Amino acid sequence: MQQVxxxxxxxxxxxxxxxxxxxxxxxxxxxLAGWVAQRRAQQVGIDPDxxxxxxxxxxLGGLVGCRLxxxxxxxxxxxxxxxxxxxxxxxxxxxxxxxxxxxxxxAYLWVYWRILRPKGIRSMLLGDVVAPSLALGxxxxxxxxxxxxxxxxxxxxxxxxxxxxxxxxxxxxxxxRRLVEEGWQLGYGFILAEAELPPQRLAPDPREVxxxxxxxxxxxxxxxxxxxIVAVNGKAVGSLGELHLALRMARAGQPLDVQVRRAGGTxxxxxxxxxxxxxxxxxxxxxxxxxxxLLFVLAWxxxxxxxxxxxxxxxxxxxxxFSRFFLEQLRLDNxxxxxxxxxSQLISLGLIGAGAALFGYLVWRGRPVEAAAPAASGTGKx
Length: 382
What we know:
The protein is an alpha+beta fold. Helix 1 packs antiparallel against helix 5 (123-148). The protein is 47% helix and 9% strand. It is built from 11 helices and 8 strands. The radius of gyration is 25 Å and the shape is elongated.
């Protein structure tokens, strides 16, 4: 996991521009998938000069659909403007691949009437060109998920699953915070005296530390029960709410610096320690990336032997729906939605049915594949 790949110094003050791993992989996936689709388009007689125009609309529609789907399914900030601004924070993750379907469908309607129909480009042929690139973009995007820590897998039993088949994430990452919420581990290696139910108790100051895990880095750094946390990473916290926010905003994988006030002490004591890593979970991002890579290879190899236009698209729909349905069983971040299945599993079933139906229809009524010479620049006709 590496949420921030590097930072670029800015010419004013000490400001630095962070380059996020998720955003970088998203950009790489768009460029590489577009380049592959452009090469394939030229092979079947579609003018490559217009393909980036097509790709721009599909990319915009797909990204908007993926992002809106994520915001609808996931917890988002309260308030209209906070929720609206959250839409643009793609570096924090939150991209549901299946949101591509409605987003790209809306973009397709616009593209069809403005570009495809006037230039005589057939939709099924275009679908065959784009389908392998979708799989390639998904494979690269899942690497971005791994760097960001989102789309994480469920916890595994370390006594039953070899360590090389699992992965752990830094403290305060999305997977580690979820495991803390489920009660499977301590978030920072200590517990605050802020609750009425055992094992926590009320205290005059809810910022007081009640318990420190003796195995945690916080204990080795010298944090003790009775310490009252007054600052986190150099920022004063005057209330329990400010303390919770400061701890939550601490960058994943970075040491945590806290200042505590101790009984009888006159000056705050500064302690620095690493946050505990997550318990081992399924490396679902890696599995998904491998799955999408194999799908890309399958679609690429099937393209020259297809018999009907649109069969590559139908194959990708069916195979991805099938594999995604089972990969979802390894995920922890997607809760069941209906019938004990997640939203993605329900969509996967629909995608399997749609892919099978489309493939069958194409075999029955589809347009036979025609040999096409490479398109001359500026023609756009097929």
